[in-house]
Amino acid sequence: MSAPQFARDAAHPSYILRGHTAQIHSVELLRRNTCLLTGDADGWLVYWTLDTKRPLAVWKAHNAAILATAEWGPDKVITHGRDNTLRIWQLRGAHESYSTLLPADGAGPHRPKPWLLHTLPVNTLNFCAFTMCYQRRGVASSDSASDEPIYVAVPGRDDKKADVYQFPEEKLICAVPRVNTSETGMVMAVKLVHHQLFDSVLVIAGYEGGFTAVHRIPRNRTGVRDAVLSVARTIYLSQPHTQPVLSIDALPDGSTYFSSSADAIIAAHRIPELPHDDVEFASPENSISTANNSNQNTKATINEPTEDDRTVNSSAAVPDAAATPPTSSELADSDTEPAEPLSFPKKRQPTNPRPPSVNPKPVTKPVTRPSGLSTLLASTPPQQNLAAIPRPPPPVTIQPAHKIASTKHAGQQSLRVRSDGRLLVTGGWDSRVRVYSTKTLKEVAVLKWHKEGVYAVDFGVVLGQADVGKSAEEQKALDEGAEVARRATGLAKLQRQREEAVQMKHWVAAGAKDGRVSLWEVF
User: Fold this and answer.
1) Which pLDDT score is estimated for 9?
2) DSSP letters of 371-431?
């Protein structure tokens, strides 16, 4: 449908999916627009195929509302529920017998669930949903992404902080600190993005006080992340909203991100130039070089002793049993004994020694100065405890957003940016789905069908003909459950053409409080 025709005619949904009995809180288009995953307030997940618009799997993933879902490769699904758990499921091929009985069909017999791979306890008291990204940039569209490690950011136990985990290790690798310069309130939304220009992973957070902040995860250059829990550095802070931030999303290259809140404002933020080498991890080589540099300064101060130093060193050469220097009478008595007399190196003798009759100032405890080698060994940090050496960050000040648009429609949430970076979509409390231009933030379409508030929206991936052909081959290789190979008949070719047509469409999926999911075709 062309843009002028879309502007003239009222838009209508292409399909309506029914089957949930509770309000929809999450929608996610998966597998290059071939499948749709929806989650409701009762914890139910429905895995739809867009070819036939029928469910492939239905199971209860959580005991409370679903907050968000995400795709990890072609066979893994991540779910986050209000029951304080984050779970990773494995959806195998078509040969697996999953229940297809929808929640609206009533309680049925035993429903087999997908294989549960990971469970992580998380904080959900602030309604903040998780976010994920791959550890390496550019692998999201590959079917080999199932073997790629991922980062998952969730709200921390302190509701003003966030934590970043690495899967499949289930390891906490980074802590996102609270913003100390301003009272931001609790974390309401988080987003993990790859900054393409600076090759860094960023954590974008939205807060209860209308703030948004960008935190940079330190890069692991020395391979010591297993021994060190890094702390993200705040590089940007802005307050474009007067109400709590509801959703955040970014352009594919990570250069700009967008935020929406309970007020009527949609803001665009340009991520500033990232500092180089903001955090360095201490390796054995770095530790030794640091110690050598400090020891050079130490040697420079002890290589040339002063007059007082010579006196102290002379007194320190006496054994501990002699707390005070011997008097002249004691020296005279010691001449009768054949014991070895006390002596000092000639080169350390002072030029003007004190007379034997004059007693020096009493010293209660001998002062010993370690040699150069002992100083080096004492100043060298322990090698087994590797720690991060953070450079003092500059103070973060509140900066204005790059662009602010007052939409006059409060309560726009579930903001999503399309894969080509041209459009963004929001779901509104007024039951409208609105599409905006990412360049101008102007409203380009309003999708109206639902009678109640829209809580979740998502864009389909924009694919070309080459991408569709490639995905068909990879999908065929992954479907191990195809017991009978498709024959090159006219019916098989027709079915394949229908599947490709579904993948090529520019989908918008919306889930609302009425428990229904609408599918739209936009520009």
Assistant:
1) 65
2) -HHHHHHHHSPPSS---EEEPPPPPP-----SEEEE-S---EEEEEE-TTSSEEEEEETTS
Taking the C-alpha atoms of residue 106 and residue 497, their distance in angstroms, rounded to an integer, is 35
Mean pLDDT of 67-80: 95
Cis peptide, bond prior to residue 284, ω within 30 of zero = no
- Sign (positive or negative) of CA dihedral 513, 514, 517, 521: negative
Q: How much is the pLDDT for 288?
A: 36
Reported confidence tier of residue 11, pLDDT bands at 50, 70, 90: confident
Element (H, E) at 298: helix 284-302
Residue 95 has pLDDT above 60, yes or no: no
In sequence order, what DSSP letters do the residues of 29-80 get, joined into one string?
EETTTTEEEEEETTSEEEEEETTTTEEEEEEE--SS-EEEEEEETTTEEEEE
Residues, the chain: 523
Contact 414, 191 (CB under 8 A): no
What pTM does this model have?
Answer: 0.74
Report strand pairing: 230-231 vs 171-176: parallel
